[in-house]
Specification:
This is TetR/AcrR family transcriptional regulator. The structure is a single chain. The chain is mainly alpha-helical and 192 residues long. It folds into two domains: 12-54, Homeodomain-like (Arc Repressor Mutant, subunit A), CATH 1.10.10; 64-188. It has helices at residues 12-28, 35-42, 46-53, 56-71, 82-99, 101-112, 117-140, 146-166, 170-188.
């Protein structure tokens, strides 16, 4: 099974439940997806999902935490040039977003229709940590208007990623969109 990101799942049934829930939450929304919908799509019973996750919210949280884990590993310490470090961080962040289009879409939807205070808190911490790292690198690279720069780059990324998450054939669109966005970000935002 081909998984994107550092999924810490050993049980293949549990992995299948997570991937299916992620897809259904992305397609139908959290509130419109039931445990029964997920179980039917996986080909298992509701008790198996309850065994692994206890609640639908815990299932959602696991998807978000897996996204967080994939974003947590994008920093590079092999370079000393601040501009190169910033560009590397931005590019790896964008690539991670493209590879995790559905969880990114779930985070966006949670901003509008919060699943719970807990999910909102997890997403807020994840966003703050990402921005904080970006800010440190941008300050070292002597960029100004850092919040505007961050918002411009990642709002554009999220908009494109959301469109890809909803598209039927996302594999080709994703590759083309990624390369085009990386070129645009480099030539528009990461120049001084």
């Amino acid at each position: 099974m081909n998984l994107k990101g550092p999924w810490k799942i050993v049980d293949s049934n549990k992995t299948q439940i997570l991937l299916t829930a992620q897809k259904l939450f992305s397609e139908k929304g959290y509130r419109n997806t039931s445990i029964r919908d997920i179980a039917d799509r996986v080909g298992t019973n509701c008790s198996m999902i309850n065994y692994h996750f206890k609640t639908k919210e815990n299932l959602y949280i696991q998807i978000i935490e897996n996204l967080w884990s994939s974003l947590d590993h994008i920093s590079s310490d092999n370079e000393t040039d601040a501009n190169v470090l910033l560009k590397d961080f931005v590019f790896k962040s964008i690539e991670a977003a493209f590879h995790n289009a559905q969880p990114i879409q779930l985070c966006l939807e949670n901003k509008i229709f919060p699943v719970s205070e807990k999910t909102d808190s997890i997403i807020k911490k994840m966003t703050e940590k990402h921005f904080s790292h970006f800010k440190i690198l941008a300050e070292k690279a002597k960029y100004s208007h850092i919040k505007f720069l961050y918002t411009s780059i990642f709002a554009l990324t999220i908009d494109i990623v959301s469109q890809i998450a909803k598209s039927a054939d996302s594999s080709k669109d994703s590759r083309d969109g990624l390369e085009e966005l990386l070129r645009y970000v480099e030539t528009t935002f990461l120049v001084q």
